[in-house]
Amino acid sequence: MKKAMKHKHLSALVLVAVLILSLGALGGCARPDGPAVSSPAPEVSAPAPEVSSPAPEVTLPAPTAKIADQATDAEGVYNGQIDNNSIEIQMSPTDVAAFRTTEVNDQLEGLEDGDRVKFGYKPNAEGQLVLTFIEKME
């Protein structure tokens, strides 16, 4: 009988030791060489800045005289078609112009945005710039 009692006490003692070791392993997750684990920082919200006046309007530089006049040998970058009868060409870093294409629609085939082009143009009666020819530069 004393043997059975010893086994019960020994089993209980082993069970308590296993529980203590398990709780210690689960409770002490922080490494001694790592940073301490703390609770998350509280959220801080800053008020939105007040806008007292509307943003200033951006003034673009005026086009150069070359855009306003006609040309027979201009160069630029084809920016794409605006509508069925107009395209846009970047002539310099600050000069972008729209050109009517009624006389050269067949010459636009194969042009892609970003292509360097050589072209000629002249003003029409309404003051619009009309392309007289356009070709992709190699």
TrEMBL record:
<feature type="region of interest" description="Disordered">
    <location>
        <begin position="33"/>
        <end position="59"/>
    </location>
</feature>
<feature type="compositionally biased region" description="Low complexity">
    <location>
        <begin position="35"/>
        <end position="58"/>
    </location>
</feature>
<protein>
    <recommendedName>
        <fullName>Copper binding protein CusF</fullName>
    </recommendedName>
</protein>
<keyword id="KW-0732">Signal</keyword>
<feature type="signal peptide">
    <location>
        <begin position="1"/>
        <end position="27"/>
    </location>
</feature>
